[in-house]
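Predict both folds.
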Amino acid sequence: MSVSLRDEVRGAKLGDHRLTIRLGKVIESLGAKPNMSVPAATHGRAEMEAAYRFFDNDKVSPERILKPHIEATRERVSQAEVALLVQDTTDLDLTRPKQQVRGAGPLEYHTRLGAFFHPLVAFNEHGLPLGIAWQKCWTRSKIKKMTTNEKGRWVRKTPIEEKETYRWIEGLRAAREVADTCPQTICVCIADSEADVYELYCEPRTTSSGEVHLLVRACKKRITVDTEVTWLEAARATKCLYQCSVNVSGRTTKRPTNKRKRHESREARLAELEVRATTVTVRPPYRAGRNRKLSDVTLNLVLAEESNPPNGVAPIQWLLATTLPIEEVQQVRQIIAYYCIRWQIEIYFRTLKSGCRIEDRQLETLERILNCLAVYAIIAWKVMYLSRLGSECPELSCELIFEPSEWKSVWMTIRKANPPSTPPPLNEMIRMIASLGGYVIRQSTRPGTQTLWFGLQRVYDLSTAWQTFGPD
């Protein structure tokens, strides 16, 4: 590819110039066949062993691998009018049937081992992924079983810095650094309901050149200072600004033991939502210990709630706490549109796990897997980037992304005709590549990441044949 994965790691400082060169070769080989194993993606035994040695090298770390990509991400953010910095957590299940990965810790219970990955991924306001702006990985040493009362006391007494929830504050601080280096861009840090932590709202958001806005889906029952009701009740008490209809997709719960309403099975339906907005000042929760007294916080709320849900079905409800303005209806609509982009990070995790198969990599230690994860984190972003770029910039020449041997071989394979003298538009080429992975070309749809990552592997093989045997 003309815009290559090698560019995303160029200049990585690994303490040895040869390691930097090796990183470029490794990421290009694995990126060409993201769904394949390391032996299948590399060229021969020598390259395979070199890749495994690279992941095992003491000078290599996820931070060093990702640093040039993070810098490139900030450059792309600086060119955007709005940057949505989405943070979320996914677990990496590294449980093995026999020999376990050294260094892996328990996930939700001790028989399931792995690690946690928490990235801050940047998107523009249309959902085009701009790259990884920050990331954190960790493992648990043990899981302590506690009753509800014991857990409540532990939450109140334990400093936020000693909890896993501190990652949300670290993510906001990383977003603040991005906003500081990109003063011309409106930066919004977005998170799901797990980030509904009061200390997050108290965290400073201003920078030397501006500020970073906050947008979090609320889930806690926080009490307002003025009306002494919950902030959900305060939002419900305001007038409806507008109504809208949304298509609710059906789902089947993955774990029958999960009783949370947001994870229960449901049928697809068309839901009618009422949207309201208000400003509230909420009372801080109690925190034991000195110097842990929190102050009141004033936030804007946007409530999108289903007015008449079917009997026995939990209503669709989004209560969004934000620092973005809500004076006009269009601003409220924009806030909901921004939060909808948050779902793109779930697609990113799916691309990383199913497309790049990071959990299936046969590496014996956690350190090697985390180095491998850093490489595939960039590859997963690139797959998503190509998938969205085709629809965002449809008339862009495909030769700005793909080499002539790539797009010409695909054209002849799909169209059964000689390639045109002028490179076709990028959107047309992306659709053809995705069709190699199972996408059915329709004007009303666009290809997803799964068909694209399968198609890209076919592109690599077709391009190799083109270069080896020639167009004739």
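Second protein follows, with its predicted structure tokens after the sequence.
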Amino acid sequence: MLLAAAAPSCPPSSETTKAFEAAMTPAQAEAAAAQLAPRLFAQAAATDVEGGFPTREFNWLHTAGLLTAALPAALGGAGLHTPAATLALLRVLQHVGRGNLAVGRVYEGHVNALLLIQQLATADQVARYAADTHAGHLFGVWNTENPADGVHLEALPNGRYRLRGAKTFASGAGHLARPLITGALPDGQGWQLFVLPADAQPPVLDRSFWQPLGMRATASFRADLTGLEIGAEDLIGPPNAYYQQPAFSGGAIRFAAVQLGGAEAVCDETIAFLRSLGRTDDPYQRQRLGEMAILRESGRQWLRGAAENAARADAAAPAGAETTVAYANMMRTAIETISLDMLRLAERCVGARGLLRPQPFERLHRDLTHYLRQPAPDGALADVGRFVLDGKTF
């Protein structure tokens, strides 16, 4: 029996949205993130604890209106969900990543979940989860699992569903109230997205799973959902909707924007370190900083290119789906290269002395190196090669 799924989203009624007022414009959201970035950076060392979580920082994001920024204006957001606002969204993510990559990673997952819900859920579900976001609830996406004990949905006679299995790399586990999760339907019917009300039904967490090189404060534990129950009202979209393109791969531009923010923090702190030592007249240091400036501007150009491509692809939908995926794969590859080159040059600039705590480079290096390890980098680059070999252009 195929499990019931929510219908695609449609615009909310006036009754649904009348309790909300637009929080800010896309430009104001970008300005709020830029203003918050130095505060996040100043707090980052204290938050860098294995198994910890940046609770205070997310309270700041909530106060600044950034938790709701990906919602439409009719639901009290900044409208960052639209293709026209892609550049503002990417810059918001960049600024948060510049402040703290661990915060940026969890915040990007929160934004990703809200975008998926708006794309796939019913109007009533969208409004309900918008209200949860205004209340300060954190969302996220938990998809990674081990094949041997992945999440399954088991139908119950009362129309509800019992969960069995676990997710790994469940970022924000123990702190997300509304994780968006993939689970296997019975009899090979595909994968179903659902929102777990984790504040009422918390999963069992294995904190020993998360002993990372970097990104310590993301609380990316193993989360066992076995025995928890959800209802039909918690199901989001039809089976296999999560893997539909271009949304599945095209979203890589968002985590790449957070990564670029981390690379920019490396550049900014290298300049500050050399100034503090009076090493600004050294011609070799200037040469390396010149290279870093080029890398930084190259990354910013990729953000602009991704935004322009999003607008073109939206105008050409659905024909623009393949181009969206190829461009996202190209951008994530370019940002990875930019970030690795930035780290290499920064190491040469600051030397062993700069890699000692309390200098921030040791933490920045760990966090950015770890966060750059995204799935299937070779496949992403090969997809770009296939795209151009087929004679297609961006």
